[in-house]
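Thread: quick sanity check before group meeting

JM: Hey all, I'm pulling together slides for Thursday and realized we never actually wrote out the predicted structure for the chain we discussed last week. Dropping the sequence here so it's in one place. If anyone has concerns about the input, flag it before I start.
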Amino acid sequence: MALVSGSSQGIGRASAIALAQAGMNVVLIARDETRLRCVLNELANNGEQQHRILVADFTNPSALQQKIGDFISEGNTIHVLVNNTGGPKGGPIIEANIEEFTNTFNQHLICNHILAQAVVPGMKKAGFGRIINVISTSVKQPLPNLGVSNTIRGAVANWSKTLAMELGPFGITVNNVLPGATNTARLNSIASTKAEKTGETVDHILNEMAKESPMQRIAEPEEVAAAIAFLASASAGYINGINLPVDGGRTKSL
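JM (edit): ok, ran it. Output follows.
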């Protein structure tokens, strides 16, 4: 069974669809029940799969902890956890309010940790587990005007690496997928904000983003989801503790 957070849209939605196509039972979790039910209807079903939804708001970690705790206590075992949460608003780091750091830390690292703590006992018992965190190429190369995101993504990457070392002996791998510019609502929001500040068109800004990649285009969510589905598979059993960029080669570090 796979639990995919932020699965009402974007990379989370595409990942849930990919995992269902791979034959997994998928649990969708996000705060918008209407969107979740729409995605639920999109999931492949071979006649034996059972997909479901959990409605939870990641701005409320305590409520999330209660929600996932109740789900696990009902006898459900999660074998694949995809941690995926929308990023904070952009802007220079020096202009960020303290609350922006606190809120983003809670929504990303703390909620990731809550979900991991809930599902790892079942993974240990099964002798198999996959934890995949969708973060950002900023953990390798900080991105301009995404100060809060750069900071918190780095914290998640180090949390993940530490977890990979601790859980490896139990047959559980922990990896990070680092999307580059991807055709999601968040990317369009970033482009719109920049357009308002610069007077340029959104299309122009998106075209400039595309040119930053050797592929000369922006990724589709399904391309990131394909990497996630592979890391979730048995074939990726000896890949652990890595940061995998899915950015068309944009990141300049090795």
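AS: nice. The two ends are 34 Å apart (CA to CA). The first strand starts at residue 2 and ends at 5.
JM: adding both to the slides.
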